[in-house]
């Protein structure tokens, strides 16, 4: 038996550290029976060869086979089919099983030959092989399921339309911002050029006033362009009412002051109105006689008369 503790380079090394473990009792029993083979590789026995037991298969077929007419079975057995391209019998050597195209084509030709063989037999037995024109088949999915699918498709279409509209709005906003920035930059540039021209004129470096004409022409051109783009309309009803009530703006302080022309203008002077001699005027204070209230004594006499 190997020692439980080994020495390597003057140091004790345990069995576990070297990867050695104590054998289990199951392994010891298998080794004593001779079930374990020597070495790391275990030799496996050869697999049993497959057998094609034709007699056994036929016996099983006769056990569960039912004697039914061909209309109930509709089975057609066809052998090898002639290849229309090669004009020869398609045998095992002609069809390569590893070639997917040749294998599927052989299946297709065999199924087609079986159909061509079964159709005359069905017609002879007066079995219809075509679907009638008024044939109605129930759908595999219910109406509720189809309604859910329609709603889902409709919601997807609406979401796509909303996203397209949002994209268009974003593009329009970007374009509007771009145009606005260009207009602001152009105005700032014009203002800067005008200020520079004014400074030059003030310093005496230039005696030309062309920048004023350019400003007027540019403003007029801008106004004409805006007028051509937008149809000029009059003020709305609210603006007209305010204009009628408060005026049209301008200077209001001192608007009632007398001027030389208004002082000399006496066309609106009326002597009767000025001296309280007009109709309905009293002699004292200019109070209206019609609106004068009777005195207390007069009111008492009027009451006594009414009694």
Automatic annotation (TrEMBL):
InterPro entries listed in its UniProt record: Ebp2
Gene Ontology cellular component list: nuclear periphery; nucleolus; preribosome, large subunit precursor
One Pfam family here: Ebp2
UniProt function note: Required for the processing of the 27S pre-rRNA.
Name of the molecule in the record: EBNA1 binding protein 2
Main location: nucleus
Lineage per the UniProt record: Eukaryota, Metazoa, Chordata, Craniata, Vertebrata
Organism of origin: Otus sunia
Family: Belongs to the EBP2 family.
Composition bias type Basic and acidic residues, residue spans: 155-167
Localization annotation: Nucleus, Nucleolus
Region (Disordered): 1-31, 155-179, 214-307
Bias (Basic residues): 1-19, 168-177, 284-307
UniProt keywords, alphabetically: Coiled coil, Nucleus, Ribosome biogenesis
GO BP, one annotated term: rRNA processing
């Amino acid at each position: 038996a190997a020692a439980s503790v080994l020495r390597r380079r003057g140091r004790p090394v345990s069995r576990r550290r070297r990867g050695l473990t104590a054998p289990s009792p199951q392994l010891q029993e298998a080794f004593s029976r001779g079930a374990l083979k020597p070495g790391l590789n275990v030799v496996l026995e050869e697999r049993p060869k497959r057998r094609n037991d034709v007699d056994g298969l036929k016996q099983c077929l006769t056990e569960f086979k039912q004697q039914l007419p061909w209309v109930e079975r509709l089975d057609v057995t066809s052998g090898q089919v002639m290849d229309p391209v090669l004009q020869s019998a398609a045998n095992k050597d002609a069809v390569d099983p590893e070639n997917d195209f040749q294998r599927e084509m052989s299946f297709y030709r065999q199924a087609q030959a079986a159909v061509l063989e079964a159709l005359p037999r069905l017609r002879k037995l007066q079995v219809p092989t075509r679907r009638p024109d008024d044939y109605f088949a129930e759908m595999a999915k219910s109406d509720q399921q189809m309604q859910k699918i329609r709603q889902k498709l409709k919601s997807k279409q609406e979401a796509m339309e909303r996203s397209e509209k949002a994209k268009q709005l974003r593009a329009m906003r970007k374009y509007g911002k771009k145009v606005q920035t260009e207009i602001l930059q152009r105005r700032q540039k014009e203002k800067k050029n005008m200020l520079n021209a004014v400074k030059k004129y003030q310093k005496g470096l230039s005696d030309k006033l062309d920048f004023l004409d350019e400003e007027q022409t540019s403003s007029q051109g801008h106004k004409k362009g805006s007028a051509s783009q937008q149809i000029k309309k009059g003020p709305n009803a609210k603006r007209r009412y305010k204009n009628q009530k408060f005026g049209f703006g301008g200077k209001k302080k001192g608007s009632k002051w007398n001027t030389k022309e208004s002082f000399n203008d006496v066309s609106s002077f009326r002597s009767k109105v000025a001296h309280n001699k007009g109709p309905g005027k009293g002699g004292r204070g200019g109070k209206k006689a019609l609106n004068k209230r009777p005195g207390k004594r007069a009111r008492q006499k009027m009451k006594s008369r009414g009694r």
